[in-house]
Amino acid sequence: MTTFTTPAAFLEDPPVDDVVDRMYTSDLEVQGYVANLTRVWAHWPDALGVLSAALRMATELAELDAVERDLVVTAAASGLGDAYCSFAFGSKLAQRVGPDITADLVQGRDDALSAHGQTLADWARRVASDPNSTTTAHVEALRRAGFDERRIFGLTFFVALRVAFSTVNDALGAAPDAELLSRVPRALEDAVTFGRRPSVPEGQEA
Question: Which domains does the chain show, CATH number per domain?
Fold first, then answer.
């Protein structure tokens, strides 16, 4: 059974029952460590299951491909000021479009993106950081980018769900994992100047 010597966040770790143990084991098998955010959501695994299912449905409704998904999450997370998901999804995006373009994106500079990418990044950032700033012109830009009304709703719902996920993590003090940071391109690491600082590996002093 997995145990920890340092906290993942402001909360103490929950009791490890069979469900929580499966969550931790899955992390270990997939990425080689138990993520801080997993330890936070282990307080209510059903909530994570519901949110994950809703995110999958929203992704399907918006018809987002892998690049669009990573771009939207990175733009939304950075617009919200969430370092954790900016590192996690920014690293994925960097593998697809390059570290420098991704670093610019998290700093709010979208010039290197295609017109399609710029439209998605702008919408995601607005929904995450200031939803009242959207206008009919922004919606029309999404239509020109190929999104019909149903896809626009799905895209917006997807971003709102990502904001909910990041908000729980950030409010409860879940810092980006040191193991995650070790896999982040230097350009992206330097660009993420917001949010919580990465955690210190167990056994090391801060």
Answer: 62-191 (1.20.1290.10)
